[in-house]
Amino acid sequence: MDARTTAALDRAAEKTRRHIGTPRRAETLGLTLGRTTAPTPMLFVRYPPCLAMVLHGRKHSLDADSGGLDWGPESFLITPVKLPVIARVVETGADGDFVSLNWRLDPAIVAEVAGQLPRPRPGSEATPRRLGTTTAEIADAVDRLVGLLDTPEDAPVLLPLVSRELILRLLQSDQAPRVHAAAEHARADTVSTVIDHFTADLARPWTIDDAAALCHISPATLTRRFRDITGLTPMRYLKRLRLGEARRAMLTDGWTATQAATSVGYLSAAHFSRDYRAAYRLPPARDAQRASVG
């Protein structure tokens, strides 16, 4: 990254550190702040439609196509719909910590800003890679957004302006197609409908045909829309949800691996253990035991 981008992200990281203890103030800006002083195990998080950024340090996220993504301040992630993410902090920065933020995307604001820009011709946009490239303009806008944590009295006037500027910069980035998807209700609602059904009935023996029938579209069309918006096929998305909920049940509710696997629809303990180990790097029982000891 160039010096301007690095400096803006460093300023944003410092402001984020100051306000880790004020989640309500951050929420009024659509922000969720994160900080840790040590690497973490693989964790499951459900991202809302948002911009996710690492301001300091590095993380590793599972990816359906490449198997994994290592990223830091040079990159950002756009999630146009709710996305199950399995990731871990792999490196703290020079200041000894990992600092991140998520900023909730407002579809109405995205649509408003996008409506004032020329749209590319249909079919002219290739599906972007999973991570976007952080530009100086994006970093500056993020810095100003986080800066409103220091001056909440200014937020009613400046937040609408900064939000629109940040959306503009994202629409000018290599992730523009995914930002547009956050505002395209007809397209995103198809995916959201399936996500809501998956979440409500994880144990159902879903097939791609079942999922496509919910929206009266073909399996191929549903798969393409899921990939465009989430980077995952519907069945890979469902697997993420199932593994995340199973891990929560073991670590939070004290369920056995067999109980957790059955509750989310796994019929084979061996299949569950294989998928779980691929995601979290440990067999389910050992992971639960380590978490209870830690």
From TrEMBL:
Q: Which UniProt keywords apply?
A: Transcription, Transcription regulation
Taxonomically, the superkingdom here is: Bacteria
Q: Residues in domain HTH araC/xylS-type? A: 192-290
Composition-biased stretches (Low complexity): 1-10
Q: SUPFAM superfamilies, alphabetically?
A: Homeodomain-like (SSF46689)
InterPro entries, sorted: Homeodomain-like_sf, HTH_AraC, Tscrpt_reg_HTH_AraC_N
Region called Disordered, residue ranges:
1-21
Name the Pfam families for this protein: AraC_N, HTH_18
**Could you identify this protein by its name?**
AraC family transcriptional regulator
